[in-house]
Amino acid sequence: xxxxxxxxxxxxxxxxxxxxxxxxxxxxxxxxxxxxxxxxxxxxxxxxxxxxxxxxxxxxxxxxxxxxxxxxxxxxxxxxxxxxxxxxxxxxxxxxxxxxxxxxxxxxxxxxxxxxxxxxxxxxxxxxxxxxxxxxxxxxxxxxxxxxxxxxxxxxxxxxxxxxxxxxxxxxxxxxxxxxxxxxxxxxxxxxxxxxxxxxxxxxxxxxxxxxxxxxxxxxxxxxxxxxxxxxxxxxx
Amino acid sequence: xxxxxxxxxxxxxxxxxxxxxxxxxxxxxxxxxxxxxxxxxxxxxxxxxxxxxxxxxxxxxxxxxxxxxxxxxxxxxxxxxxxxxxxxxxxxxxxxxxxxxxxxxxxxxxxxxxxxxxxxxxxxxxxxxxxxxxxxxxxxxxxxxxxxxxxxxxxxxxxxxxxxxxxxxxxxxxxxxxxxxxxxxxxxxxxxxxxxxxxxxxxxxxxxxxxxxxxxxxxxxxxxxxxxxxxxxxxxxxxxxxxxxxxxxxxxxxxxxxxxxxxxxxxxxxxxxxxxxxxxxxxxxxxxxxxxxxxxxxxxxxxxxxxxxxxxxxxxxxxxxxxxxxxxxxxxxxxxxxxxxxxxxxxxxxxxxxxxxxxxxxxxxxxxxxxxxxxxxxxxxxxxxxxxxxxxxxxxxxxxxxx
Lengths: 237, 403
Prior knowledge:
The complex is a heterodimer of chains A (237) and B (403). By secondary structure, chain A is an alpha/beta fold. Helices cover 26% and strands 28% of the residues of chain A.
């Protein structure tokens, strides 16, 4: 048992920012706009760090797929208590079309490479709201999944997960290794302490290319039409 | 990360201070600033109005700030602090004060005025006893220099300390002491040799509560209402001999040097208030319409916003420069005074203009503009009035030009 946890952290536009549509209607303005760690990823990091503090896991590795600036997101995870980071650099056209399928292939490859015991992700990202990466990663690895987790308890080599579902709460018990996705009420993420911010500087962030992990970043999705900014009239009910 | 640091691989930041760092902050400082801003946005700003209205000391938030290391930023880690520099302190102070100016002053007094002199002039034993318990946010300290009879005229202290056997006995009254109702210790300045005038003042450490030390009624202030301000009354207050801080007669020097650093803290607090006012006003300028368009389209409003932004940014750069000089262990008295002067006048200017931009809405408690106006006012007064700052700056300039 390596006792290693992989936590995925995504760099997204900050939740408090007012989103503005680009004048050419091809998407949303991201230049110069404040970005931060996806709130559900913060909750995932917090859970992983808590497990380490309880000595139930040995190492927390923060992973982010994205451009250079994703390193800031990894640093924030390190400042919260993660031990080291892995930055899978994806930029340009590849970054524009990066989606859950590619990310989950990357996470699966890293899980095997790092001999991870547990993967914790946020349930969804606040920019695309896909809610797919956790589930796809589990399927690719053929691992059990505890999604929408609002309570996680490690019990020997099993994990008890209380899941938030439409009808209320569902409790399941799954084997490890497993994939968990964090829901809102799982925990309250800590603020990085100043000493930890200082320590984060010394922690290592490894740079990895998707190709080195055997992952093809080409998207299977094709944008047929952009309706961004075109819907100007009020709808009718 | 900028190219600034690629050239000096491996060399630690502290030895590499340069003015170009004003263009982009080091990564750790950026992360620190963001963390404090998030804390202020989520934990302080939502309750600031309530804290102000109810004069409520934010004990819970101060404790959380302590856990983050913000209550003892410069204190080395071995003593329980964050082990960071004054630039970090200035950034943290600005962001905290942007959320709540009262919380900002609690942080500033603990860091600069209470811990500051002990860190600089205390013995190792005193540091362990008087600093370490005050880093976690559950205990805060205060600084007792001013008296009912003298504020700016700090050298005229009439609080006395005489030796009686193995104890110092202190008598007198201190006025306008920030944090005192919530503090667990104080640095007090008293005269041990009246004939030596300001060279006869010494500094002492007194725990609170303590026999012979009592507190006056809480002042009902215009602003920073969540922080307590009152008199400290000393009546035959007895403390052990080794509660003296620094050498006998060094009190005035300790106070002045402490205030030099404290000025950076207050300048940062003023920046936070000014920035909060600008944020409020600029947001309103987008939303409020008049004469058929958002008021932000009107030049009258635009000129105000521009003037506010220039005032803030120039004061901020002065504050950062003072911090960088202090961190580089260079003389920073003039720059700190300039920073405090510029920032406090920026705070009163910006908060005044913010109310003007908000119009009627600026005058009511529904919007934070009126609170910023009230909070800003004290920054031109405490830790050295604007008039005293001008004297300090002029003194330094005249020294430079002395032939």
